Amino acid sequence: MKIFLDTAEIEEIRTAARWGVLDGVTTNPTLFAKVGGSYDDVLKQICDITSGPVSAEGIAEDVKGMLEEGRHFAKLAPNIVVKVPMSEEGLEAISRFAEEGIKTNCTLIFTANQGLLAAKAGASILSPFIGRLDDINEEGMIVVRELVAIVELHDIETEVLTASVRHPRHVTEAALAGSHIATLPFKVLQQMVHHPLTDKGIKTFREDWEKARKAADEQAAAEPTPVGSSRQN
Ligand code: E4P
Questions:
Q1: Cα–Cα distance between 73 and 97 in angstroms, integer?
Q2: How deeply is 36 buried, as exposed, middle or buried, from its count of CB atoms within 10 A (0-12, 13-18, 19+)?
Q3: Which end of the chain has the least Cβ crowding within 10 Å, N or C?
């Protein structure tokens, strides 16, 4: 399963790239609002860090506006993927982008049927939002499982991206469900790295090593110099 970062924070993206685990990035207007500046500049910087897909999302609600925004984003870098919301207008825009060879990520998917329609319209990525479903007492992962099954059963050329991830367990479940991609907040990526027993183990190994080295040094210092080993002048 590919791992994307769900952020517009450049330092977080650089860090994940250095760890060797970054396959792409998703952004949205809310994530961009947290960093500010020029969205185009932020997107270009991200595309300089990763050659994987970088999702850029506009705010237009009509087809004409969606197409204008998307065409503009697509010119910024070759790895830009245009995020289009699931709606009647969004489906039309996805279909037009597909004709133009512009890749799209259909966002704000909350049912398998929405995902199926987006795939039929030509979306390269389908983004079910699992955390937001969990928030309203539904089971978001069901949509991921259903969509993956539909895509595989009908051999549809698209990828299911598990979005709105809230915690590491979501990532494990997405991988087990066969999700092609999961996009994670940086905090969740960090949580995946750590485990209290790993951290404790690293500390204990270091302490035991230092203890053994100190004991060896003390023993060497206490031992009498063997006969014949002193320097002869
Ligand atoms: C995905 O592309 C979205 O940007 C994101 O996962 C939304 O997550 P949220 O529900 O935490 O805002």
A1: 12
A2: exposed
A3: C
Amino acid at 104: T
> What letter would DSSP give residue 186?
H
> What is the spatial distance between Cα 24 and Cα 22, in angstroms, rounded to a whole number?
6
C-alpha to C-alpha distance for 109 and 103, rounded to whole angstroms: 17
Looking at the DSSP bridge assignments, the partners of residue 26 are: 6, 55
What pLDDT does residue 229 have? 57
Q: Cα separation of 208 and 210, whole Å?
A: 5
The CA distances from residue 227 to 124, 154, 217, 223, 230, in Å, are 79, 84, 20, 12, 7
Helices then strands, counting H and E runs in the chain, come out as: 11, 8
* 19 CB-near residues (< 8 Å, 6+ apart): 193
* 83 annotated active-site: yes
Give yes or no for residue 132 CB within 6 A of ligand 1. yes
Whether pTM exceeds 0.90: yes
CB of 178 within 6 A of ligand 1: the answer is no
Alpha-carbon distances, residue 223 vs 21, 207, 216, 228 (angstroms): 51, 25, 11, 15
The DSSP secondary-structure symbol of 230 reads S
pLDDT in tens, 156-210: 999 999 999 999 999 999 999 999 999 999 999 999 999 999 999 999 999 999 9
Q: Is the shortest distance between the CB of 23 and ligand 1 below 6 Å?
A: no
With a cut of 70, which residues of the chain have pLDDT below it? 225-233
